[in-house]
Specification:
Elements: H1 7-22, H2 42-56, H3 62-66, H4 71-87
């Protein structure tokens, strides 16, 4: 995946992937929704982590997902990681 991707595209990809992984309707996923609020248990969260590492070619720690971040915080973190990777 391109590393110069914008925040809106990251949000779109995030909503699509979480909707598919958790088998929930996209309309339920809001920027202020936390992973746990969407029904993601610890196994789901590990799957989400692995899926996003693969999709964005980034490395995320398991501790990161356990913070129960909102979708918005999660997307901002991905964007930050992509920007850092571009600067390396």
């Amino acid at each position: 995946m391109k590393k110069d991707i914008n925040y809106e595209k990251i949000m779109q990809i995030t909503v699509d992937k979480i909707s598919n992984l958790l088998e929930i309707d996209k309309s339920v996923i809001k920027p202020e929704s936390a992973m746990g609020d969407l029904g993601a248990d610890s196994l789901d969260q590990v799957e989400i982590l692995m899926e996003f590492e693969k999709a964005f070619n980034i490395n995320m720690t398991q501790e990161f997902i356990s913070y129960n971040l909102t979708i918005e915080e999660f997307c901002k973190h991905i964007k930050k990681m992509l920007l850092q990777n571009n600067n390396e």
